[in-house]
From TrEMBL:
Stored Pfam families: PilN
Organism ancestry: Bacteria, Pseudomonadati, Pseudomonadota, Gammaproteobacteria, Pseudomonadales
Protein name (Swiss-Prot/TrEMBL): Pilus assembly protein PilN
Species this protein is from: Marinobacter confluentis
Annotated transmembrane regions: 21-39
Keyword presence, Signal: no
GO biological process: type IV pilus assembly; type IV pilus-dependent motility
Amino acid sequence: MAKINLRPWREELRAEKQKQFVVMIFGAAIIAGGLAFLWKSDMDGRIAYQESRNAYIETATKQLDQQIKEIEDLKRKRDELLARMRVIQDLQGKRPVIVRVFDELVRTLPDGLYYTDLSKTGERLSIVGMSESNSRIASLMRRFEDSEWFTNPNLSNVASADSRRAGYSQFNLTVQQKTPEPEKGDE
């Protein structure tokens, strides 16, 4: 006898294949979700790692900026100290010069003449004085010309003095100070 299958096997096969398809879709979705979760976790980890590196670089940069500021402060203080040292050395070097200048002012001063005011601006010395005669002023100017510490005397004014100093003339004189070559005993 012939066997006839009257069961709806095609519908069952189709239903079975649909179930398998749904399971495979669901499985693929779970795998895709898992892969997406792993990818996102990896990216979050990388972002966190990069942010920690950026924070480290920022703190290191702040420390370097602070060190640079300290170095600049130290350089500024060093420059100030060097400037002070130069001023002190300059003053130490000029201390004997001013003594010699005053000594030379006394040596060039002729009798019958005296100074009432001295002022110095740079290398120019302004002198106001009183003299018994104009010839004594001329003698003073010649002595300044012959001096090794002064040059270019310039007489700007000669006037007779007030009634308290009868017979005296007031004069205004400017002279350039020059620094002579140091002698062997000066060093």
